[in-house]
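pasting for the record
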Amino acid sequence: QVHLVESGGGLVQAGGSLRLSCAASGGSVSLATMIWYRQVPGKQRDLVARMSRNSDTDYVDSVKGRFTISRDSAENTVYLQMNNLKPEDTAVYYCNYHRGIEDFWGQGTQVTVSS
């Protein structure tokens, strides 16, 4: 069982920055595909950024150039650095651990961007 705990969300003005953290236990973030998703009420959960085991990354077009996913193997933590935030980035952000048939989620952290 992999346990994920997200943190770092909050309220920020448009143009500001936040860094989300996803601390993992029970599994190594270096051996899994780690993904950040976000969800707004009434809508599906959408992929935001992904890092594979070999550190390849990809992003949804709307965050390219503003968000960066990274990994600290020693801390067993994945980060999402979010810069130049926009009101449309407002959502609950979830961390996902995916490895083979293993698929685990964190509880989510709220990000609210005011205009």
